[in-house]
Design goal:
This protein is α+β, with helices and mostly antiparallel strands and about 160 residues long. The protein is built from four helices and six strands; from the N terminus they run E-E-H-E-H-E-H-H-E-E. Strands 1-2-6-5-3-4 form a six-stranded mixed sheet.
Length: about 160
């Protein structure tokens, strides 16, 4: 179904491994994925971020300056680390809780407590993280931030491109 929504699928022949690539939050593929993940309940996906702007954005205003890559990467992985223990009940109707400052050395792969937090709250926090994340906040709306990668049991990996809101 996610592929029907526009995700690209890569599969390792003879292996139980597949990658589904979703171009953008808000796309039909993203909606299918989000609805599926939110239906899983207390399942904890392994999550990481990578900084790899798509080739078609590299020379455009939608690609952040390369000299900011490490700072963006650190802020994004700090957000992932801070979001990891949260449950959906920790969110208010107003939105995500205020996150602490970026970490000096965030872990690069962490389990996020619930699938719903991982695909709703986390993406919102990365796209619009609040005042404690000055590098991401300084980006213009629509600028690429990162790709968030989710690893699920059964060898399925989902990658979604996140842009500044």
């Amino acid at each position: 179904m996610i592929v029907d929504g526009g995700a690209r699928k890569d599969e390792m022949v003879g292996e139980d491994l597949r990658v589904l690539r979703i171009d953008r939050v808000g796309s039909p593929a993203w909606t299918v994925y989000k609805d599926w993940a939110c239906s899983l309940g207390e399942v904890d996906p392994l999550v990481q971020a990578v900084f790899a702007p798509p080739v078609n954005l590299l020379s455009s205003p939608l690609s952040p300056p390369v000299n900011l890559a490490f700072q963006i990467f650190t802020e994004v992985n700090s957000i992932i680390n801070h979001m990891a223990p949260l449950r959906i009940a920790d969110f208010t109707p107003v939105g995500i809780p205020v996150l602490p400052d970026p970490l000096p050395g965030p872990l690069l792969m962490v389990n996020i407590r619930h699938a719903e937090v991982a695909v709703t709250g986390l993406i919102e926090a990365i796209a619009n993280p609040g005042a404690n994340y000055p590098v991401i906040n300084a980006l213009n709306t629509g600028v690429y931030i990162c790709d968030v990668q989710y690893a699920w049991t059964g060898g399925t990996h989902i990658t979604i491109s996140v842009h500044k809101r």
